[in-house]
Amino acid sequence: MKKIAIGVVAIVVVIGVAATWLLNSLDGIVKNQIEAIGSELAGVPVTVTSVNIDIGKGIGTIAGLKIANPDGYNTDAALNLNMLRLDLDLSSLAGSPLVLEKLVIDSLEGNLELREGSTNLSEIVANIQSDNGEAEKKTDETESGEPLKLSINELLISNAKITVTDKDVTEVKTIPTISLADVGGKNGGTPAQVSGVIVSTLISEILKEAAAQRLMKTVGDSVDEMAKGLLNSLNKALE
After folding, report:
1. Where would a tag sit more exposed on the chain, N or C end, judged by fewer CB atoms within 10 A?
2. Helices 220-238 & 191-212, crossing angle to 10 degrees?
């Protein structure tokens, strides 16, 4: 009986150590997935400063998410998502999809830069459109062997501003708050699909704002239509 008791204690200790390792590693796993999937999807380096997820409370923050510019552009980055705050639906942890009750992207800074009839943001849109599923290959699988699926009940993008550079002219403008519901749908989408919807929504709104304020006359509607077309195609893939 004493040996059995010792064995049970040993198993509990091992499980406790494994659980502690998993929780301590979770932030790094999420950071690596964002960087790997984001870089593949956008065709430019995507980096994250820090990730802090508290599974017990169902909350998390992602700080300093940076989407670099394609080659040939002068600004330091295309998009800086300075702070992301998320609320997890804890009841979804045991199944699929993983549900975020709310994802708030706060204090976003975008750079829209014109070069020879194109823009840095339109090139990123083109990269996403031509990904051909390569980003999906970097998605971690669940215990069942199926790709991880995500669904976001509410997406809120607030306190966003864009710096528009056209030759020697630079203007800074604010973007109205963006709110989306049910991103990923009931069945969820892969991280690449959901990320594509979020990034293309951001870019579409930035381009629409630039067009509405006549900030970039030489780009105009064609780039905006490209972004909206990508957003429509991504949404259809999630239906």
Report:
1. N
2. 150
Q: Which amino acid is at 189?
A: G
The count of other CB atoms within 10 Å of the CB of residue 76 is: 11
Q: How far apart are CA 43 and CA 233, in angstroms?
A: 19
Global model pTM greater than 0.70? yes
> In terms of Cα–Cα distance, which of 151, 60, 147, 154 is closest to 99?
151
Torsion sign, CA atoms 160, 105, 181, 151: positive
Domain that holds residue 51: 2-238
Counted domains in the chain? 1
pLDDT tens string 150-208 = 899 999 988 888 888 877 667 788 888 888 888 888 888 888 888 888 888 788 777 77
Euclidean distance between CA atoms 188 and 172, whole angstroms: 36
Let me know: does 187 contact 85? Beta carbons within 8 Å: no
Positive/negative CA dihedral, 143, 135, 159, 201: negative
